[in-house]
Design goal:
Structural class: alpha/beta
Radius of gyration: 23 Å
Shape: globular
Strand order of the largest sheet: 2-3-6-1-7
CATH architecture of the largest domain: 3-Layer(aba) Sandwich
Number of domains: 3
Largest sheet: 5 strands, parallel
CATH class of the largest domain: Alpha Beta
Number of strands: 9
Oligomer: single chain
Distance between the termini: 37 Å
């Protein structure tokens, strides 16, 4: 669908309609925006929801766009309602309405904007207001986790760009522990490179395992925080069910961090379940962490 949208826009010589990408962090939402710009031969202006604090901030960005530009707003769910209302006419009719003055004497100045495409990204699509979401007329696209083979290809490509020699089995091991996420795969590749350089060793399977052990990344790609979440539910709450806020408080973490960063992968690999009563660890989690499973655990998933 996205390819058809871009091809049709190029043939019409007109910017494509506005797009929204959502999904867990690290899957390449920003990279995809740059690839779209490259495909269209367009310039990209990048900002984020938290950076647009005032209407004047948005007005400055919009009035500095050129025809055909792509405006990329990351964390779009963090735009406040006042900013959204200024964005609506810009997205729908290409106009910017600026209010001059206050009270009965206030007046509205309408500025015409050049044709542009807004591409926005979020990890929390449910927090985007319905009026804003409906204005992404080009479509809303969910980015899914990659599979291990695709992550391996990304690691191979990154290794070539960085001038790193790495053995095939080492690539597979990094891919296996990268949480199906390109950003994490590239991070682990660089840390394995650093370890191999200091140890004066080739980047082999053995070297990668040693490096990832130092980073506390286990065979499933879990980090220390992931394991703490599962261990907390098992040890303090008998495996669950337990609420998100309670888990986050026990770990001195923010709710959003646990929900957006850790939970998606734990659920993806079958270590955690969301139920109407709260979070529950699975049999696989007990086995992975070496805990004995309570006999009544299956009933908690209902």
């Amino acid at each position: 669908n996205l390819k058809i949208l871009l091809t049709a826009a190029k043939e019409r010589n007109h910017p494509p309609e506005h797009l929204l990408f959502y999904g867990p962090p690290g899957l390449g939402k920003t990279t995809l925006a740059y690839l779209i710009a490259k495909e269209l031969g367009a310039q990209v202006k990048v900002t984020s929801g938290p950076a647009i604090a005032k209407v004047g901030d948005l007005a400055s960005i919009l009035t500095n766009l050129s025809a055909g530009d792509i405006l990329f707003i990351d964390e779009v769910h963090r735009l406040n309602k006042m900013i959204e209302e200024v964005l609506y006419p810009a997205m729908e009719s290409g106009t910017l309405n600026i209010i001059i003055g206050k009270g009965p004497g206030a007046r509205v100045i309408q500025l015409d904007l050049p044709p542009f495409t807004l591409i926005s990204a979020t990890t929390r699509v449910a927090l985007i207001s319905s009026p804003l979401r409906s204005r992404f007329s080009g479509g809303t696209f969910r980015l899914e986790f990659y599979d291990q083979a695709e992550i391996g290809q990304i690691i191979d490509r990154s290794a070539k760009i960085l001038g790193i020699e790495i053995e095939p089995e080492a690539v597979k091991e990094i891919a296996r522990r990268s949480r199906f996420t390109p950003r994490i795969a590239n991070h682990l590749l660089k840390r394995c490179r650093d370890y191999a350089q200091v140890a004066r060793e080739p980047i082999s399977l053995k070297t990668v395992r040693s490096a990832l052990s130092l980073l506390s990344i286990d065979e499933l790609g879990l980090n220390q925080t992931d394991r703490q979440i599962l261990e907390t539910i098992i040890e303090k709450f008998n495996g669950g069910p337990v609420g998100l806020n309670t888990i986050a408080t026990s770990l001195s973490e923010e709710d959003a961090t646990v929900e957006d960063v850790n939970e998606p992968y734990l659920i993806q690999v079958g270590l955690l379940e969301r139920t109407p009563r709260g979070r529950v660890v699975t049999r696989k989690a007990y086995e992975h962490l070496g805990f004995d499973q309570p006999t009544d655990q299956s009933s908690k998933l209902l």
